[in-house]
Amino acid sequence: KMAKKEEASKIILERTYNIPLRRETLKAPSYRKAKKAITAIREFIGRHMKSGNVAVGKYLNLKVWEHGIKNPPHHVKVTASKDDKGKVFVELADAPKEAKADEKKKPEPKTEKPEEKIEGAKEEKAEEAKKIEKEEIRELQKEHPKHHAPRMPAMPKQQEAHPTAPKSV
After folding, report:
1. What's the pLDDT tens digit per position in 4-54?
2. Residue 46: what pLDDT?
3. How far is CA 22 from CA 5, 26, 40, 115, in A?
4. Which residues have C-beta within 8 Å of that of residue 69, sequence separation ≥ 6?
5. For residue 32, what are the CA distances in angstroms to 26, 65, 66, 114, 121?
6. Bridge-based pairing state of the strands 75-83 and 54-56
7. What is the pLDDT of residue 21?
8. Which residues pair with residue 77 across a beta bridge?
9. Angle, nearest 10°, between helix axes 33-49 and 58-65?
10. Quick count: other Cβ atoms within 10 Å of Cβ 156?
11. Are 98 and 3 within 8 A, CB to CB?
């Protein structure tokens, strides 16, 4: 979906920023720091790229949340690209570039067929293995039916040899 949208819209502006997050995350409690870092990124990019429509990329999000909610990075290097519709896409500067849709379509038909065959064979083998396992379990249950330990008879209450209180006559 994203690739189609990017193809439809032209990228007008692309910039690289080193976003400081420490000052913003200090304002948030420790259990909300990474969340605050993401909002700080959105605000920073919105301010600098002059757009309210900001999309944070997968790798940038993973980088911010890498050490959990309490320990986001102090600063992050990102590339922000703005399209003609005003949408800004922010991604980590070192993030791997994704191949275009045209390049992906060519190798897919060749690789899909063997994978489907392999997956189908694996599924069949797995189903057969499950059936065999169930049969073995049934046979074992027939051979060894459940035996419960016999209940112990209730012990008769014994009279104390020396009662504490004298018997009333």
Report:
1. 554 567 889 999 999 999 999 999 999 999 999 999 999 999 999 999 999
2. 95
3. 33, 6, 10, 47
4. 31, 32, 33, 34, 35
5. 10, 11, 14, 47, 47
6. unpaired
7. 96
8. 18
9. 140
10. 6
11. yes
* Distinct helix (H) and strand (E) counts, the chain: 6, 4
Both tokens assigned to 42: 């959105």
For 79-134, give the DSSP string: EEEEETTS-EEEEETTPPPPPPHHHHHTHHHHHHHHHHHHHHHHHHHHHHHHHHHH
Instruction: Tell me the backbone φ, ψ of residue 165, rounded to 5 degrees.
Output: -105, 145
Q: Please name the amino acid found at residue 60.
A: L
Alpha-carbon distance of 112 to 48, in angstroms, equals 44
Query: CA–CA separation, 80 vs 14, rounded Å?
Result: 6
Show the domains of the chain with their CATH numbers.
2-100 (3.10.440.10)
